[in-house]
Amino acid sequence: MKEDKLKKKFIQGNKRAFDLIYRDYSAAMYTICLRYTSNEDKAADVLQDAFIKIYQKRESYNPTYNLGGWIRRIVVNEAINLYRSEKKFEFIEDDSFFEAEDDTELILEDSDQNIKQLLADILEELPDGYRTVFTMYVLDNLKHQEIADYLSISVNTSKTQLMKARKFIKQKLEEKNITRNTVVNE
């Protein structure tokens, strides 16, 4: 089914169109849910809730826009709502972290699956608050003000959590003797 026809039928409530959309997008959206929850069962629950909402809000979808982006936004919002409802993490205000911010970046080769898995494992080790802000800022490209609004925290708290997450990740990579040079040269 062509994309324009698929969008039109989806908006009208056609079950087959919805099933095709679910088939095409569910795996990628599950990955997003997993980044926010670090728990397969909760990620599956968030995904299910998100797709229910996607179906319920289908008439508000504007077919001139990218369907994947619209679906992704709903999934991210559902994952954030889960965190709001559970209040599993505590944000700590500490402006002292802004005094000496380290801007170093890791350069990774896209083809190296072992490094990707290692980074995914490190992200799962992050405390919930760090992981949530890191995911929202780095992976979902949200601004600190947007993160603050979503999570009902201050912009400074968002920045602090992001910096702590980066510091945690850097420390874990250093413990495993992974540096920019070892990754690029492999």
Q: So, the CATH homologous superfamily of the largest domain?
A: Winged helix-like DNA-binding domain superfamily/Winged helix DNA-binding domain
Name of the CATH architecture of the largest domain: Orthogonal Bundle
Can you count the helices? Answer: 9
Q: What does the overall shape look like?
A: elongated
The CATH top-level class label of the largest domain: Mainly Alpha
Number of domains: 2
Cα(first) to Cα(last) distance is: 43 Å
Plain-language structure description:
This protein is mostly helical and 186 residues long. The protein has 2 domains: 3-86, Rna Polymerase Sigma Factor, Chain: A, CATH 1.10.1740.10; 95-184, Arc Repressor Mutant, subunit A (Orthogonal Bundle), CATH 1.10.10.10. The chain has helices spanning 3-12, 15-37, 40-56, 67-86, 113-125, 128-139, 144-151, 155-175, 180-184. Helix 2 (15-37) packs antiparallel against helix 3, helix 2 (15-37) crosses helix 4 and helix 3 crosses helix 4 (67-86). It is elongated and about 55 Å long. Residues 95-113 have low confidence and may be disordered.
